[in-house]
Amino acid sequence: MPDSKILAATPDAVAEAAEALRDGRLVAFPTETVYGLGGDATCDRAVAAIFEAKGRPSFNPLIAHVASMEQAESLVELNPDAHRLAARFWPGPLTLVLPRRADSKVSLLASAGLDSIAVRMPDHPVALALIEAAGRPLAAPSANRSGAVSPTTAQHVAACLGERVSLILDGGPCRVGVESTVVDLSGDRPALLRPGGVEVETLEAVLGLVLPHAADSPDAPRSPGQLESHYAPSAPVRLNAQAVEAGWALLGFGPVAATLNLSPSGDLEEAAANLFAMLRAMDRPGLSGIAVSPIPEYGLGLAINDRLRRAAAPRGTS
Ligand code: TXA
Ligand code: MG
């Protein structure tokens, strides 16, 4: 079978990728958070191909990526909170779940039949140029098989998806390294669905309220994608490690002697940017497990710990 083609993200390559997208084919592309597996969000066939390539359950909806406020406004109803957050954080690692517009062109497969749509404007010149050249919103989950570690380089995408994606635009390593923060603004009160690249504390300051985490509050809406086991390397993962048993590797944080260190100086931004690449690099055959140093539970630490808890969760059978 033909391997996926990795192309440096030159203007010509972006034009070729946009053509493929307009044809209903899939393209992996860089964003500031992780690489996305993109398809035309308005085309059922392209969206179905994304679910197929990822092995993703079809009840887990996709984010529609846009390049302008106008494009966002054509898909969803923006309320005052949405305008405030978009003005402050877009383009950037923030996804807003908003009521679907009656005339929205986004495929119902992409939103898993919900009456809301998740929208985000990525802060990456290649992603923005691609969406603009394609002339339509792009549905794009992280470009990995469902349940696996998210890709932060073009090489990770090729290793994970292989021939399932024909074209990968290479924009180098992703700057943020963890996925976008997902906030639900479709209900009566805003709720946090996933901690991510925008710090929750900053969002709360802009909104002027404490964001309930959907996972902690029974009445808040649940994000269908927040499955327990995810981001899982093949070796078992143990959190809050103070010591390491024989045969295990230590993923460190702060001034500790470790196999690899997310940030020797204890910088959470650096740790987020290194997280997925280091989990991959440590995941070697013969390793008994990966122990991880404690990570503080604030700022980007919330997103890092969320991903690590899923990596450490008991693995399902599916
Ligand atoms: O940083 C990111 O967000 C990356 C890059 C590629 O943009 N994308 C990404 O997509 O992480 P994905 O599909 O791996 O995660 C999307 C999350 C899932 O947890 C999904 O359940 C949730 O957003 N989601 C999407 N649409 C939703 C909706 N209408 N209501 C509630 N949750 C939704
Ligand atoms: Mg994902």
UniProtKB/TrEMBL annotation:
The keyword ATP-binding applies. Its main location: cytoplasm. One of its GO terms (biological process) is regulation of translational fidelity. One of its GO terms (molecular function) is L-threonylcarbamoyladenylate synthase. Keywords: ATP-binding, Cytoplasm, Nucleotide-binding, Nucleotidyltransferase, Transferase, tRNA processing. It is found in: Cytoplasm. Gene3D superfamilies: DHBP synthase, Threonylcarbamoyl-AMP synthase, C-terminal domain. It is an enzyme of class 2 (transferase). L-threonine binds at T33, H65, R120, A140, S142, S180. Residues 11-198 form the YrdC-like domain. ATP binds at R56, N60, S150, R194, Y231. Signal peptide: none annotated. It catalyses: L-threonine + hydrogencarbonate + ATP = L-threonylcarbamoyladenylate + diphosphate + H2O. GO terms for cellular component: cytoplasm. Its EC number is 2.7.7.87. InterPro entries: DHBP_synth_RibB-like_a/b_dom, Sua5-like_dom, Sua5/YwlC_C, Sua5_C, T(6)A37_SUA5, TC-AMP_synthase_SUA5. Belongs to the SUA5 family. NCBIfam families: L-threonylcarbamoyladenylate synthase (TIGR00057). Required for the formation of a threonylcarbamoyl group on adenosine at position 37 (t(6)A37) in tRNAs that read codons beginning with adenine. This is Threonylcarbamoyl-AMP synthase.
